[in-house]
Design brief:
Elements lengths: L2 H29 L4 H17 L7 H8 L4 E4 L5 H8 L4 E5 L5 H4 L3 E2 L5 E2 L14 E3 L12 E5 L9 H7 L5 E6 L22 H10 E8 L9 E7 L4
């Protein structure tokens, strides 16, 4: 994969943020307010872009840090954009996910007109996938204790057991986690967003903090209303 292809997700992010920012700034300059409808439309477009590509924007620094942790095994790999970019850098990466939603780990995700939560069981997870993504559940983790475990946004809106199921079967020394974490989210003061973030369940975060030490945090470009980073953790009893 050429360098230009590696930069494409970051370039798309910069272009969209520049366009949206300029548009809202122009509204504010004229009317001293911004249109709620426009903000909602921008947020909806951001969700579409994330679903079609990846939920976090890869950068050279993040990809270099992950490459240094190779060999890697990624569960819940989605479209496989990060895995494909890492492979293009020469990293040894295995990437797994299921092609369709399973309530077993990820739980129901839809809100009904009455305000209740309904199931998304059987629906496609994301858009077109890179060939590097193989079909596999969290059980796949136990087969690769020699690899760094990579998880990116495994628990939808911070709920579900996908991340914890992967962690409980992992006997390796290092974790590479991409997403939000408690203490660093908009949820601390924004209604409708979990205070623990939208990427990992509270139970997962507690389990990680109990057995692992945080080694490194790498900032990532953030779409509106998200504060995701790359976090590298080392098991406390690992040499």
């Amino acid at each position: 994969m050429a360098m230009a292809e590696e930069l494409a997700p970051l370039a798309r992010y910069r272009a969209k943020m520049g366009m949206w920012g300029g548009y809202l700034l122009a509204q504010w300059g004229v009317a001293r307010c911004v249109g709620i409808g426009d903000c909602n439309a921008m947020q909806s477009e951001a969700v579409s872009i994330r679903s079609a590509t990846s939920w976090s924007v890869p950068t050279h620094a993040a990809l270099a840090a992950l490459s240094a942790l190779s060999p890697l095994v990624e569960l819940g790999a989605g479209n496989g954009l990060w895995a494909a970019l890492l492979r293009s850098r020469g990293a040894d990466v295995l990437a797994f996910d299921t092609p369709r939603w399973s309530d077993l780990y990820r739980g129901p995700t839809k809100t009904s007109s009455a305000g209740g939560v309904t199931s998304a069981e059987g629906e496609p997870l994301m858009g077109e996938r890179h060939e590097c993504v193989e079909e596999g559940n969290p059980e796949e983790v136990s087969r690769h204790p020699d690899r760094t475990l990579v998880l990116m946004w495994p628990d939808y809106h911070g709920h579900g057991t996908y991340g914890l199921s992967c962690l409980q079967q992992y006997a390796g020394a290092r974790l590479a986690l991409v997403g939000e974490w408690r203490g660093r989210t908009f949820g601390a003061y924004t209604p409708g967003i979990p205070a623990t973030g939208q990427s990992f369940s509270l139970e997962f975060q507690q389990a990680v903090e109990a057995d692992f030490e945080l080694e490194q945090i790498i900032r990532l470009p953030n779409w509106p209303f998200y504060l995701d980073t790359l976090m590298v953790w080392r098991r406390r009893d690992a040499k």
